[in-house]
Amino acid sequence: MEKLSLAQLDKRMDELPMLSTVVASLLALNPDDDNYFENVMTLSQQDPGFALQIIKLSNSASGLPVAPIVSLREAVVRIGTRNIASLITSLAVIRVFSPKTEAEKNLWAHAIRVAVTARVIACTTSLFSLNPDQAYLCGLLHDIGRFMLFREAKELMNEAYSVNWQAPQQLMTMEEDLYGVNHFELGGRICHKWGIPKMIGQVVEYHHNHDLPKEITIQPKTLHLIKTIQQADQFSIFLTLNPKQLEQDPEKFTSDLEETCMQVCGPTPPVNAEELQALANPIWLECEGIIKGMGID
Predict the structure, then answer these.
(1) How far is it, in rounded angstroms, from Cα 77 to Cα 72?
(2) Which residues, 6+ apart, have CB-to-CB distance to 258 below 8 Å?
(3) Distance CA 75, CA 148 (A)
(4) Alpha-carbon distance 120 to 99, whole Å?
(5) Tens digit of each residue's pLDDT (9 = 90 or more) over 237-279
(6) Residue 227 CB contacts under 8 Å (≥ 6 apart), including other chains
(7) What confidence category does residue 31 fall into, taking pLDDT thresholds of 50, 70 and 90?
(8) How far apart (Å, rounded) are the C-alpha atoms in residues 269 and 118?
(9) What is the Cα–Cα distance from 40 to 208, expressed in whole angstroms?
């Protein structure tokens, strides 16, 4: 197959649907406003598809209530108002890149795991001041370029993803071989097209860069988000390849995390191995609930 150039992929991007106006409005809300809950309710009700999916997700969460949740208000209360914007964004993106094959579902599951992990890290870290919603959105979109590559060359991507891989670098090499482009540069372009805030687009574009080019100017908060996504990305890969680690002795689990998830984001990781180990089970349970609720398990 002839390699696709960035210019060709840019033209294909013009065919992508724009994100819902409901999503744009939700992302613009201030969670600290007194009327945030009611504003979320009003916006969510504007799209019946989102409302139904939110109710479904609330019933898929761990610790199910005795009676099933049947109203949007109950669902928002159960999921948590601050998480609704993140979940609706997930639902909006999955409408554009609907997973059909096992490889596509695995890619989506990875995006959810990185998003949830990044949000939890943002709420936990004492080194950086991070917005958890921004961290979630960065995690959700960090591999959006790969969704585009699946869309344009489904058979090749499914074949490539059927091979066992152990590190992100292997997949990047595969992308360069197949297309002559990488997913993160492509992802940055998609974020720009969709009007995603510049900070998030930069995280998507540079999340595999450990030494940024000197000509690139990035704010400290953006660099902190990049580190958070790098750690969350490696954590998701590690647990996906080694799910039984959740049942291991905590000290052994912590030692393995130290070797796999700490150095990837430089000498000052957002959270240390002990903190990540303590968060692992709650993160995984939340991820599985979302993945099941979105129908991609």
Answers:
(1) 9
(2) 273
(3) 32
(4) 25
(5) 999 888 888 888 889 999 989 988 888 877 889 999 999 999 9
(6) 128, 265, 266, 268, 269, 270
(7) confident
(8) 12
(9) 34
